[in-house]
Design goal:
With about 190 residues, the chain is of the alpha/beta class. Helix content is about 50%, strand content about 15%. Strand 3, helix 4 and strand 4 form a beta-alpha-beta unit.
Length: about 190
């Protein structure tokens, strides 16, 4: 069962959007997925009208996204919160499914692919030239291909983190380097 992040609007028609998110969760569960919709959960105890609480809630949602194998994006327009979620999913190469009108789907995939390309830069020409062979896949797919570990090893990720998390991240990077494992997928 894939842990699946449900990305949809929260603000606007707040009550209607929460009900929709619950329906998206039900749909994902019926598809054999394990849905996670932070805006359904966090709204039980976080005041979305309080800017500080909203900021914390959004940040917590992004932390949960890191543990997911799939992101499902629903809607007609991309909100600011959704934009950050889609962008992080692109950086982490989390599988994506998009539901909505064609122009919405195109916009979401553009955000996802742009983040994948700009946040994961190939460090050697080998990785850059190999990317052209995968033109029909998400832009950075070859960089994380399980079959070609050499490409995965020459990839860099740039993620802004809170200074209070820096020591924990440093430990994770050091362990990753010692073990020779990759930290480029969600759940790191």
């Amino acid at each position: 069962m894939k842990l699946t992040y449900i990305c949809s609007p929260c603000r606007g028609d707040y009550e209607k959007n929460i009900i929709k998110a619950q329906e998206y969760c039900r749909e994902a569960m019926n598809d054999g997925l394990l849905p996670l919709a932070p805006h359904v959960y966090f709204t039980q105890f976080v005041d979305d009208t309080n800017p500080e609480e909203r900021r914390i809630g959004l940040r917590c949602g992004l932390q949960l996204l890191r543990h997911c194998q799939l992101i499902r994006v629903y809607g007609c327009e991309v909100s600011a919160g959704m934009y950050d979620e889609i962008q992080l999913a692109g950086v982490l190469d989390i599988e994506i499914q998009v539901f909505g009108p064609p122009e919405f789907i195109e916009n979401v995939l553009e955000i996802y692919n742009h983040a994948a390309v700009t946040q994961r830069r190939p460090l050697r020409k080998l990785a850059a030239s190999a990317a052209a062979a995968y033109a029909d896949q998400p832009a950075a797919a070859p960089l994380l291909a399980e079959a070609d570990k050499s490409l995965r090893e020459v990839t860099a990720v740039h993620i802004n983190i809170d200074p209070t998390e820096a020591s924990e991240l440093g430990e994770m990077i050091a362990n990753s380097l010692r073990n020779g494992s990759s930290m480029l997928r969600g759940g790191a």
